[in-house]
Design goal:
This protein has about 325 residues and is of the alpha+beta class. The protein folds into 3 domains: about 30-95, Immunoglobulin-like (Sandwich), CATH 2.60.40.10; about 105-175, Sandwich (Immunoglobulin-like), CATH 2.60.40; about 180-320. The protein has helices spanning about 1-30, 180-185, 295-320, and strands at about 30, 35-40, 50, 60, 70-80, 85-95, 105, 125-130, 140, 150-160, 165-175, 195-200, 205-210, 215-220, 225-230, 235-245, 250-260, 265-270, 290.
Length: about 325
């Protein structure tokens, strides 16, 4: 009797062991088909590989992946017995990423002038990204696209999308200084200030009337002239004119001109370096003079000296701030 009871207990334990082992084996047979974590390029098709599980079991999948939108997505797989009992849950993680750089189309055959304001659109016909809008792209450059002097300039434009993908455009441009074109551009809305003509020797010029006492002139020979008029105790009118060829302002010429009614005048000439930063600018004599009014040269110097530095500063500011080019 005892033996029968013992054998019965052993059979029960063995049956439970077999049942547990069978369920354990089936649970272990349930696994993801493919990787747990996946990265997929934005815009690409995502095909879910699902789960491997025994027959007569039921798989329920929850979650979706929008491959047109960057982000992290989760797919949950729940495996049930045919009786509705949960057996195992598994998860797959999908990250939609953007690894493509922005692209551009270069604009060809462009001419760049000193003093003009340019933008990225003057270098690139277009630029875009596979995911981000144009307004979302970060643009950085090594230049503010205002060239303040002629010569060869290196241009670098970096275009970065919100995922950190970066493309770099590099080019070299030969910047041209054309004073006539520059003056037309600066005064395109104030054409009444611009006067053009030809001298008796055939040289063309452009003169800008800055105000009633100040003018700036450019001659196609390359010379620049800044003229400032004053009242004078030595005559009816006086003026200081500073002249130079661009790029040679260190060898500028200054003349102080005094006139009287009837066309008579006296003028003194000085050579000096206009590129230096002067605390004061005092001259002791003229290099030469034309003295039709028979004026005392010392009186002319004394009347001129207090005015010279102010005129030079105004000339520099006009060239650098109004025309947007380097004073040199």
């Amino acid at each position: 009797m005892r033996m029968k009871k013992f054998i019965g207990i052993i059979l029960i334990v063995f049956s439970v062991f077999i049942l547990v082992s069978c369920n354990t084996n089936k649970e272990e047979a349930i696994r993801l088909n493919g990787e747990v974590s996946i990265k997929i390029e934005v815009g690409e098709e995502y095909i879910d590989r699902g789960v491997i599980y025994p027959e007569k079991y039921v798989l329920v999948t929850n979650g979706e992946v929008n491959t047109n939108k960057l982000g992290k997505y989760e797919i949950k797989y729940s495996v049930y017995t045919d009786g509705g009992e949960i057996v195992k849950e598994l998860f797959r993680f999908i990250e939609v990423v953007d690894t493509q750089k922005p692209s551009y189309i270069e604009k060809n055959n462009q001419i760049f002038y000193a003093g003009f304001q340019y933008s990225i659109d003057d270098f690139l016909e277009s630029y875009s990204d596979n995911y981000d809008s144009k307004n979302s792209l970060l643009i950085s450059t090594n230049n503010n696209f205002i060239f303040n002097e002629p010569g060869i300039k290196e241009i670098e434009i970096k275009i970065t999308d919100t995922s950190g993908n970066k493309t770099i455009y590099n080019t070299t441009v030969d910047v041209i200084l054309d004073f006539e074109k520059l003056l037309d551009h600066v005064y395109r809305n104030e054409t009444y200030k611009v006067r053009k003509g030809v001298t008796g020797i055939g040289s063309s010029y452009t003169t800008i009337t800055i105000d009633s006492n100040t003018s700036f002139s450019y001659y196609d020979s390359g010379s620049l002239h800044f003229l400032k008029s004053f009242s004078s105790e030595l005559g009816d009118r006086a003026s200081i004119q500073i002249s130079a060829t661009y790029g040679k302002f260190d060898n500028a010429r200054l003349n102080y001109h005094i006139s009287k009614t009837g066309g008579q005048y006296s003028v003194g000439f000085i050579d000096f370096d206009a590129t230096l930063d002067y605390d004061s600018l005092i001259f002791n004599s003229f290099r030469s003079t034309i003295n039709n009014l028979n004026l005392n040269e010392r009186d002319m110097i004394d009347e001129m000296n207090p005015r010279v530095l102010g005129v030079l500063i105004e000339f520099k500011e006009y060239v650098e701030q109004t025309l947007g080019i380097k004073f040199k």
